[in-house]
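Consortium newsletter contribution from the modelling node. Members have asked for a concrete example of what our holo predictions look like. Here is one, prepared for the glutamic acid complex that several groups have been discussing at recent meetings.
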Amino acid sequence: MTVATADGQPETPVSLTTARRLVVKIGSALLVDEASGAIRQDWLATLAADIAACRQAGQQVVLVSSGAVAVGREHLGLRGRPLKLEEKQAAAATGQIRLAHAYQDCLARHGITVAQVLLTLDDTEARRRHLNGRATIDQLLTLGAVPVINENDTVTTVEIRFGDNDRLAARVAQMISADTLVLLSDVDGLYTGDPRRDPDARRIPVVRELTPDIEAMAAPAPPGHSSGGMVTKLAAARIAMGAGCRMAIAMGRTPHPLRALGNGGSCTWFLPAAEPLTARKRWIAGSLQPFGTLTIDDGAVAALKRGKSLLPAGVVAVAGSFERGDPVSVADRSGHEVARGLSAYSAEDAGRIAGHRSGEIAAILGFRGRSEMIHRDDLVLTGG
Ligand code: GLU
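And here is the predicted structure:
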């Protein structure tokens, strides 16, 4: 789709086909038949075919799927009434296996391996686990698998709310620097009013900024409805846009929902101002307070300026108290800050491997950690 902006800005091509790293969120209402509690296998097969086509086109795909509670409650005889938290958790534990199995089956038909990743929102927000989650999902994508992610509902301490996966999907997109997030939904975008009640409601094709006017368009989900409604979708849009990731709300009920979107199907695109890596680096440089300092030699300073990662060999001193994933300042020998980044090692381990070649890490620490002290994606130059 090519869109012209109301304020006469140049036309911007917006299309699913330009996505390189794509996160797709699938809601319970799409995946699970409300009457029977069964997985809608025919629809899922069309989604799997679309995912295979995306991968054929060289796109990386990550799925965030709901539906564990909806599938599981059937098998535990918990249908037809509201569930208590522990009942939902029990239902999720039962349903998640079936869900994973369904994805495994339908993607295996296209020769695609799936990997189950269960996260809590905390994992995507706390920096330490953030770095681990990012590395694992990166690795899965490198190895050609499709991660299928859901919230780890059995250990969550807060109420399991439908719609939370909208936010989880946006956090995942942020965590892995995805460039595109698609929320497959039971509506084809954001409307100026509730299209179920207001015949004059118009769909907004493109949103570039979440203004109060836009926020006011989000109607809460009707009671009993399994979708989180627009409120959580706009919350997701806020996270995604802040992370430099564009986001679409698109109709998922019909067969081949990604193909339809790729062919210019109706939706709402939320377009960020920056690219994902730029947004991530801004976050690292600006909003995080360093927990310590790594002092590095002149060779390492020069390497960082050429866009390289920081290797342990270039580190001459470690100060402060930090854990793996914490933000640290990087200074030259005269104490002048040259960069900031997320350390792949705790202060203690960093001190032990400082000055050593990456090949020696395993022998010194007793485990094989990252080759880099700070990976270049987690590093931003700050000095002049
Ligand atoms: N994690 C929940 C489930 O799999 C759903 C959360 C949501 O729909 O947003 O049932």
